[in-house]
Amino acid sequence: LPGNIQPFNRAAIFARVNGYVKSWDHDIGSPVKSGQALATIDAPDLDQQLSQAKATLASVKANEQIATLTANRNNILLQKQIVAQQLADQTTADATAKEAVVDANEANVRQLEAMQSFKTLAAPFDGVVTARNVEIGQLINSGGGSGQALFEVSDLHRVRIFVQVPQSFSAGLAPGMKATFEMPQYPGVQFDATLSHVSKAI
User: Fold this and answer.
1) What is the pLDDT of residue 188?
2) Euclidean distance between the first and final Cα of the chain, in Å?
3) What is the pLDDT of residues 29-46, one digit of tens each?
4) Three-state secondary structure along 141-166?
5) Residue 59, Cβ neighbours under 10 Å: how many?
6) Three-state secondary structure call for residue 91
7) Which of 50, 98, 184, 195 could form a disulfide with 67 if both were Cys (CB 3.0 to 4.6 A apart)?
8) Closest by CA position to 147, among listed 55, 18, 32
9) Cα dist from 177 to 4, 162, 172, 182, 197, whole Å
10) CA distance 154 to 92
């Protein structure tokens, strides 16, 4: 029976950030390890967003610090009955609100820093580069909804073979059965295989 041989694992690598290809390190046929860099993207827009977010964070932290100092001073003065309870409550609430603003801006900075890590495209597992669709200077748009994958990495240490079995043979199939297969590029050589799954679709 004819079968379709596919890699044990195969992953299409798309970009998560917009930018330009700064460099690529591995071509078709290159073996790669998990986490190894395939290409680097220059993302000036993202860099500017991160710089702006860090500047905003510094500003709101300064506002939060002065609000906290003011609230602490008013609470001390309140104990000495120098300021009204209303003023102390207002400054305490203002300090709490500014703390929340700081937390929100810190989360924004962390998100952008996480996006920065996506400027490097990395291999998801040990394997071989089986497709490369990038060139230096090429404009990159994030996401995998449209366009070609930038790289494809295949894990070839094992393969999957998909076989369409005639219905008359299907009743005798069970996972764990042994089989052999041949490949045209290796005439006369037989390879061992094990039946791992049966779709049970007739």
Assistant:
1) 92
2) 17
3) 999 999 999 999 999 999
4) CCCCCCCCCCEEEEEEEEEEEEECCC
5) 13
6) helix
7) 98
8) 18
9) 18, 15, 10, 17, 10
10) 58
